[in-house]
Amino acid sequence: MKSLYAGLALAASVQAGLRFPCSTLTIQRLDPAVQPGSNPSAHVHHIVGGNAFNVTMTGDVAERATCTTCQMAEDFSNYWTATLYFKHPTNGSYHRVPVLPVQPLLGGSQGASGGLTVYYTQFDLSKDNIKTQPVKSFPPGFRMTVGNPTERSKPHVGIRYQCLTGQSRGAEMADFPSKPCTGGIFATQHFPACWDGVNLDSPDHQSHMYNTIRSDGFMNAPACPSSHPVRVPQVTYETFWDTSKFNSMWPSGTPNPFVWSFEGNSAGSHADYMFGWKGDALQRAMNKSECFYDGCGSIKKQDMTVANKCTVKDFVGEPTDGWLKALPGMA
């Protein structure tokens, strides 16, 4: 089984890319990337990042945000995923699964409240490739998604789950764990790293990107194709879903009782990204060779006690927690 610390120990010794926590900003049924203008959107999302998050978001997000739940104080991007729910095997009611900060956290980043961990890597976690293939930051207004909530067979490579046991994450899997995990369920979403260099978005929110990922983990990103020639940072999310409180309600030998907020199975894992870094902050970090975690000090960091104070209003006004007879939007 893979230790939570093993991969990070390797990464810390060679230092490439960024890794930082973002506390939870809000949990509600909005999706300004896929369903702009819809209040509410189809299903509940877990959202982190800048307080410019809204029903509709266009243009330079960083210009409108005044705070962020991310440790990097110049990052006003928004990052979100579907929300995980426990479906009671007996009465069919639903309860939202809480999130915990991904451990271990590095560089004085303790104190995150829920949220997820974000990576921006230049090549992989063990080295960069900027001398032969420079990495270009995303421009203002850029957005993308990865994964598909309508998928029912299995997610593509790079979207994976791990069953947490103590300090071990276990093997990466394309499906939810088939038995209770004592430590919870760990979900990872790797975004594509090649951009067409023209479009800030596309009708399906994915065609302007090209996915080079062919194997699990933080693997080398090969050269981009001529159709999508611009190498951008490899964005990855890690979320720690604390499923442990529901283990006693999962009868032995019965199917996995966890569902995504769209009543979807493990195959429908997906994530949305909306760029919102201030000025050239992200580009400065990507220009630094072998600077894991904080870009060799090129980016200003804030204490997580400050980040945790950043909020947005409840635009939808519906319950998303506690025991629910139906998932929000699915009744």
TrEMBL record:
It comes from the Eukaryota. Pfam families: DUF1996. Residues 31-277 form the DUF1996 domain. InterPro entries: DUF1996 (IPR018535). This is DUF1996 domain-containing protein. It comes from Lentithecium fluviatile CBS 122367. The lineage of its organism: Eukaryota, Fungi, Dikarya, Ascomycota, Pezizomycotina.
